[in-house]
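User: Reviewer 2 asked us to show a designed sequence for the structure in our supplementary figure. I'm pasting the structure tokens here. Could you produce the per-position amino acids so we can include them in the response letter?
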């Protein structure tokens, strides 16, 4: 249990370290006249909370402005399917809430530094919302102190993740080769073992908001399900192997999966683990 907790703590702190925007990353000043009803619905209420209602097609509101520091977001699922709501910074996931059932709400208290962020709004096909964090003078010193204490576990965890992602690349290449050769049974036999290496690094892989969906999104993440042109990665191959018992038409999907896991390896290898 202690080892598992240490790895979890290390992954969380890695996420925190990787997602800190640089000091120069300041949001642009709001345009004059940016007031009225839209500004009211997109800013914190009197109690400091921000309510975001996610429908089948968008977030309401699609633009939010909050001061730096801690903000509690009340995420209401007004769509017809389970919801995952994320705050994104570039290619990184800063914070998230998962598995919010239709008709229910969940709270997310996030500590944010000044800058421009994005919000996911349900289905992967849906447009993203804009989250602007203004500079309130907030300084996050706790994270720096925690990173100092966990320097050794962070370094150890990085080695573990790099080993797993290396095996992921090698085995994904072999899986893709079997798929492209039309060897359905061979690909089925390789599938679970290959994807296991992704599952082992998922706390880190999920930080990359473009790569994680490309590699591991499921059919219900898309409006048209398995027939959606955007559906790819492991689960698209899984769908064809087991539901269609075929590898037909998977050549391009297999090639892209290999490219995506290689890119994931590059991103993980490039991560800095403070303190330097």
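Assistant: Here is a per-position design you can include in the supplement:
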């Amino acid at each position: 249990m202690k080892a598992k907790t240490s790895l979890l703590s290390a992954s969380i702190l890695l996420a925190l370290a990787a997602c800190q925007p640089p000091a120069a990353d300041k949001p642009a000043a709001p345009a004059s006249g940016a007031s009225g009803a839209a500004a009211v619905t997109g800013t914190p209420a009197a109690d400091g909370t921000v309510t975001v209602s996610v429908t089948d097609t968008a977030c309401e509101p699609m633009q939010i402005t909050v001061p730096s520091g801690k903000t509690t977001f009340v995420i209401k699922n007004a769509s017809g399917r389970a919801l995952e709501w994320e705050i994104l910074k570039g290619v990184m996931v800063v914070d998230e809430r998962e598995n919010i059932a239709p008709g229910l709400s969940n709270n997310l208290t996030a500590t944010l530094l000044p800058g421009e962020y994005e919000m996911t709004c349900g289905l992967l096909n849906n447009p993203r919302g804009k989250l602007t964090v203004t500079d309130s003078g907030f300084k996050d010193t706790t994270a720096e102190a925690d990173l100092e204490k966990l320097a050794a576990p962070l370094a150890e965890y990085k080695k573990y993740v790099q080993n797993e992602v290396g095996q992921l690349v090698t085995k994904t290449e072999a899986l893709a080769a079997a798929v492209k050769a039309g060897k359905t049974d061979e690909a089925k036999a390789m599938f679970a073992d290959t994807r296991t290496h992704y599952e082992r690094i998922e706390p880190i892989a999920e930080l990359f908001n473009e790569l994680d969906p490309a590699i591991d999104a499921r059919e219900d993440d898309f409006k048209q399900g398995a027939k959606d042109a955007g559906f790819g990665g492991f689960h698209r191959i899984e769908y064809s192997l087991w539901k269609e018992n075929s590898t037909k038409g998977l050549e391009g999907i297999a090639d892209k999966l290999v490219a995506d896991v290689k890119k994931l390896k590059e991103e993980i290898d490039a991560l800095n683990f403070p303190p330097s």
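For the response letter, you might also mention the following. The two ends are 28 Å apart (CA to CA). The domain at 147-270 is CATH 1.20.1420.20 (A middle domain of Talin 1).
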